[in-house]
Amino acid sequence: MSSEGGDWDFLAARKSEVQVPRERGELRGDMPGVVSLKRRALPMAIALLAVSLAGFLTEMVAASQMLSLAGPSALLVMYPLGGLGLMLGALLMFRFVDAGARLRMLRWVTLGYAVVFAAALGLIAGSIAPVVAIGLVWILADQLNFLIPLLIWALAGDEFNVAEGRKVFGWLVTWIYLGQVAGLAIAAGAPFLLDAISIPLTSLLIVDPIVCVILAMLLPRLMRSSAAARGLAREESLRASLASAWDFVTGVPIWRTFLLASIVTFAAGMTGFIAFMVGSGELLDLDAGRIQVFFAGISLASFLVAWLIQATSAERILERLGIPGTLLVLPIATVAAGLLLALGAVLESLVIFAIAITLWRIPRWSVDENARRAALALVPDERRTRVSFLVDLLPVAIGLLLSAPLAIIAVVTGLSWITGIIVAVLAAVAIPLSIRVLRGWEDSLLNWRLRRRKQNRTLDFT
User: Fold this and answer.
1) Mean pLDDT value of segment 44-60
2) Per the confidence metrics, is the pTM higher than 0.70?
3) What domains sit in the chain, N to C, each tagged with a CATH number?
4) What DSSP string runs through 329-382?
């Protein structure tokens, strides 16, 4: 998850300085050292680690429990609900992300999540509508994985200028990796330990409300003396917020194609996830413990390979292929993953299913993520956060919504392998779109909408 100013520079909204105001992106001669920057960033680093751990752990537990309780057909309901949940959450954050103090907003959002998590856990403990409760937890896990980190990164973007971000944002990303690895490792190993002491796997879900409450209470306190800005520091309607980001995407023609290619690719990828989960879940006899170990183990292995690529070669790949060339990797990999999913369904092979989903995840978590960060770093600071919501969240949310109607074709026909073919065909449609992005990328850089504007920011020290 590298770009010129760090992996997450697209959220590095430039703040005004307390003592010496200067323009957005200006370098400082007296910029503090890396140790000092890391000390300032440590609360956000710990927050990102905790959220990543809780989100990945919860997603593994919820997915395995849902398959065990309700069977594969439940995924045809859960995926669209997850997409709707992401859209609704993103719209709310889209409306308020730049309108008020980040810390105050983060506190209320995480406390809200804690309350809903606690209610869902109460239903699970009382065996009241367990399928509904697990479904709610799964949707909330998506929120933790996608939306809460965006808020923390927006906060980091307000705290650090571009030059500081170049030194500290990559370090922050490593904390996300640590949290994700820890969450997946716990999910993979917990069934063996908890089964031995007769504790239900759902007890792991207590991590979520605890993390949310600690985050809400401690992060604002630890950062109360920081110079985190309030964003635009003005009220703005949802329509105006959307129009600001949409004007950029539609005004730079190649970005329209980029967004469309992303939507098609992620629709194929999310449909592939359904094929993987249904096929492997049935081969594992819908046993929650075995499913959790398998899902988490495959995810952990994929992530470690992606992490190795990030550490050793991701930057060189981006430099060699360029941003649009690197964006071609994921659609091509998705075509191959779809064909393997079809083969896995025909041969009823867990190994082939594992290879197929790994072929999607590794580029998604490494080179594709880097290319998206680098592309978003080109967006002017005053629009970057909101454009990132469209480019990052919209394809995932729409992909989740479309995945169920596409996957249900296999249910209607009784041909499980056909879902993999649909994935491959759909991803193949994204390839010429991505090639169009490649051919028009250089010309798009001349568009006036990519120019930075001079803008002062209002500070909020609460």
Assistant:
1) 94
2) yes
3) 9-14+34-227+236-446 (1.20.1250.20)
4) HHHHHHHHHHHHHHHHHHHT-HHHHHHHHHHHHHHHHTHHHHHHHHHHTTS-HH
